[in-house]
Amino acid sequence: MADIKVNLEDVRSGILHEIESAARGAATERVFALSEALRGVEADLRNLLLIEERLDGYQVAIKGVNVPRREQEATLDAPPSTDGRQPQTAVVPSDSPITPEVLGSAEEAIGKMVQEGKVEVGYAEKLLDQLGNRIARRSPRQRGKEIRETLARERHLAPEKGAIYRTPSGSLVGIATASETKPNSWFLGLPDTPLKVVALVCQRKDSRLDFILPPYVVTRIWPQLSRSGDQVKFNIVARGSHYQLQVPGQPPLDITGFNGGYGPLI
Q: Which among 207, 197, 219 is positioned nearest to 243, based on CA atoms?
């Protein structure tokens, strides 16, 4: 595992060097692709850290200390989010659509180069303006499709039909996406078909929230969710630092801890 970490850190350093060269040469498509790759490598480094922490927990359990098992909680309340995980983005070809996640990575990398005096402020601002304009021209439907495809690539999901995918283990998962229709509120929908896992992807201006609802949650709430035609509706509301799924006839379900919990997609 140590070798993997070293290799990822080497790749990260190489990508940063290439971003610097591409920015100096005004190669915007190259900057986009490299920024996407950088984000993927950093996500892999975070995942590696999580695995190391889990290994430590397993070793403690072997010595006779109880370790909580989040998937076996009897309550519907999600486990608390304490590791600061952020939405992830897969590495994609340079001609792929530009997403807000890529913009965020590009802003971070280019901002660092400006601070170090490697590129001029005026050029950096022009480059980032071009990025922002590319994103603004996409329709909500296009953005939703891009986000679903990105998550599917990240988690190695096989497409079935529309928003329905299949996990490597064979479970059906529905991926619903939405931007904020009003501040701190998202309305999402999925086909009314039996699903094992539900991924609710909420897009903010500069980030992505991936709420992955595992089977024990989906089974409990599915019959109570609102319907419209052949669609099942989801309404998520942000209250402070917490996110709640509104379930008709039940108290709101706190889904904060399911953000970035990709285990059910294995």
A: 207
Structural domains in the chain (count): 2
Range of the domain at 51: 2-136
Residues 117, 237, single domain; the answer is no
Higher per-residue confidence, 106 vs 81: 106
Amino acid at 20: E
The set of residues, in sequence order, having a beta carbon less than 8 Å from that of 42 and lying 6+ positions away, is 12
pTM of this prediction exceeds 0.85: no
Residue 224 has pLDDT above 80, yes or no: yes
Ranges assigned E (strand) in the chain: 158-161, 164-166, 172-179, 185-191, 197-203, 208-213, 227-228, 231-239, 242-245, 253-254
Q: Domain check: are 84 and 199 in the same one?
A: no
